[in-house]
Input
Amino acid sequence: MSGRLQYKSALVTGAGSGIGMEASILFAQEGASILLADINLVAIEKVAALISSRSPNVKAIALKTDVSKEADIRAAVDKAVAEFGRLDIMFNNAGIMHPEDDNALNTEERIWDLTMQINVKGVWWGCKYAILAMRNNATDESKGLHVGGSIINTASFVGTMGAATPQIAYTSSKGAVLAMTRELAMVHAREGVRVNSISPGPLKTPLLMEFLNTPEKKERRMTHLPMGRFGEAVEIAKAALFLATDESSYMTGTDLKVDGGLTSAYVTALGEPVLPPPTSLAA
Ligand SMILES: NC(=O)c1ccc[n+]([C@@H]2O[C@H](COP(=O)([O-])OP(=O)(O)OC[C@H]3O[C@@H](n4cnc5c(N)ncnc54)[C@H](O)[C@@H]3O)[C@@H](O)[C@H]2O)c1
Output
């Protein structure tokens, strides 16, 4: 077996659905052992079973993890190191968009606090314990293994763009992820630890589709999407794979925008897209 992540080990948070699920399947296809971390144990057990059936040569372990709890993240990193001997890739991807998140006037403090606890503190702790583990990674050039590793944080286009369909807590949390990623990248740049973020555009995943639960709400966004469609989680997973491998060895502190052109848009084209979206790796 060979692959772009052969001999490496990865921890993916929010691995039970959407981006995290697609990334876990893809990383495993490329040879990585995977620790699947999610608050939804049933979901990650299913993903682990799918990976084991498709990629029997890699280990896939599901561990119930609430990223809003520091002890849970620490336990997940410890488990990955205990099972796989090292941690090369940390994908801090779990996040929420609360249905009661609204503008600055209407949003309740508990919604703000919950969002920050998961989307910001969860990423901070994920980075903290990953960096500590990555410092201990042994170097073996014959296997392409080295000290340090790659940390990837899922931000969002709303971290850099304004929306008149407000979610004040979510937007603020993603701005924090962008800022945190840049600073961590600078602090750890000479330790072999790279820290990058991905800013997905709006995706057809449960997180957004449950929020945009009427045709009007979907259409309000669609006008602004240059490609005339929402993104697919697998398209973000492929960008995460690039950041996870040493193919991106000179990238740190970067925000990789995978948004179908959204952040370059002023007036978008008319008509239906000629290309179909890619299909899920779970299909
Ligand atoms: N869907 C989009 O349009 C979009 C756009 C930009 C950024 N994002 C970001 O992408 C990331 C993944 O989102 P997705 O679209 O794949 O969502 P999703 O809802 O499909 O998956 C999120 C996963 O995170 C898990 N999760 C939620 N709270 C958790 C917690 N406290 N601890 C551990 N796991 C938890 C859920 O159980 C779920 O499996 C999020 O950070 C989200 O903010 C999504």
The two ends are 23 Å apart (CA to CA). Residues 9-264 form a domain with the Rossmann fold fold (CATH 3.40.50.720). The chain has one domain: 9-264.
